[in-house]
Every structure is written in C-alpha cells, then in structure tokens.
C-alpha cells in the first residue's frame, strides 16, 4: 500500500448531512487530518491554469462524480504531503462515492478502517443546503443542482455505503439533531471502536 501505515476513516452521507461540520470538530479532538474530496476538487478548479478546471466545474454543477483518476490523484498528493509532515490519521470526507473509486483507493492507497455514515432525511438536507446557498458561493448550492446531487447520492453513492456495510465497517449516525448532539454520537462510536 502507498503510503504505508496510514489510518483512514471515510466520512460519507448525503449532500448537506453535515460531513464537513463534524470533521472539523473531530480534527480538534482526535488529531486527524481532514481531507474533503469536494474541497480538493474546488481548489483544483480555481487553480489558474489547471487543465481540469472546466471539467470539474461541469461535474460539480451537474452533481455528477468527477472521473476518479482526478480525485484520487488529488487525494494522494494531499496524503503524501501530510505524511511527510508526520501525519498518519486521515478523515476522508465525501469519498469514495462511486464503486470504482472505492476499489481503486483500497487497492492503491488504503482499505479504510471505519466508515462514518451520516443519515439524514432529504428534506432536512435540502433546507440546510438552500440556507447555506445564500452565502456559500458554491455553484451547486441551488435547487436544480441539489436535486441532481441527491439523485447521484442514491444511485451511485449508496451502493458504496452498502459495500462497506457488508464488511461491517459502517457506523451509522443520525444527523437530524443539533450539531453537538450528533458529535456526541460520533465520539461515543469512536471510543467504542478504539479509534
Ligand atoms: N449543518 C451541519 N450539521 C448540522 C446540524 N446537525 N444541524 C443543523 N445544521 C447543520 O453542512 C451543510 C450545512 O448544514 C451547513 O450550513 C452546516 O452549518 C449545516 P456541511 O457540514 O457542509 O455538510 P456536508 O455533508 O459536508 O455537505 P456538502 O454540501 O459538502 O456535501 P456534498 O457531499 O454534496 O459536497 P462535497 O463537497 O463532498 O462534493 C461536492 C461535489 O464534488 C459532488 O457533488 C461531486 O460533484 C464532486 N465530487 C466528486 O466528483 N468526487 C468526489 O469524490 C467528491 C466530490
Ligand atoms: Mg462538505
């Protein structure tokens, strides 16, 4: 595996379920490095001269999954950079969200120790995202894109959650509660699993 001896927790859940919010809290208490695949793609998109800028822009607006080679390379670069700084524990947020990504990452990077899966009713996620859209500046925080993201999540990403569930790696957390209550559930699961 490459790089060796890293500890990966995948953080999955629908758009707006609270992945980023909970990861930020975990970073403070658990010394994890937080790597959001979506954030890495948005950063690449806005890097002047990036050969993938237009492509990423299109996929994100359409709520589609960017071809895996691009996302995995961005994740690998970020992991290696952090590895060189001595970091070994990673929260990989919003990835893998398509089976080909899951298999490729398992084979070439890490199998992942645990999957945090945030469960949330679509109506709640919709309200959160529309609300965030007033200030986020994200090109996909609008009703049309949000609906497409929900469809992709159900059709393409849920099979990944089920794949990990079959390996007994999934911890389900109900996200339709205040941020701190959700976090308490996460922490108790981490303690139980010795993370
Ligand atoms: N909020 C959070 N928790 C709350 C709570 N408990 N109670 C009340 N409010 C709560 O939260 C969303 C909003 O809800 C915030 O305003 C927050 O304050 C509030 P956040 O923590 O940001 O939720 P998160 O799950 O991180 O939502 P995000 O919008 O980031 O999820 P997505 O999965 O849609 O976005 P991501 O950035 O991961 O991906 C975006 C796009 O990138 C994808 O659609 C896809 O096109 C592309 N992509 C790929 O192609 N490949 C990848 O591998 C990854 C991404
Ligand atoms: Mg996020």
Automatic annotation (TrEMBL):
One of its GO terms (biological process) is 'de novo' pyrimidine nucleobase biosynthetic process. One of its GO terms (cellular component) is cytoplasm. Keywords: ATP-binding, Cytoplasm, Kinase, Nucleotide-binding, Nucleus, Pyrimidine biosynthesis, Transferase. A ribonucleoside 5'-phosphate binds at residues 42, 64-66, 94-97, 101, 138, 149. It is found in: Cytoplasm; Nucleus. The keyword Ribonucleoprotein does not apply. Catalyzes the phosphorylation of pyrimidine nucleoside monophosphates at the expense of ATP. Plays an important role in de novo pyrimidine nucleotide biosynthesis. Has preference for UMP and dUMP as phosphate acceptors, but can also use CMP, dCMP and AMP. This is Uridylate kinase. The lineage of its organism: Eukaryota, Fungi, Dikarya, Ascomycota, Saccharomycotina.
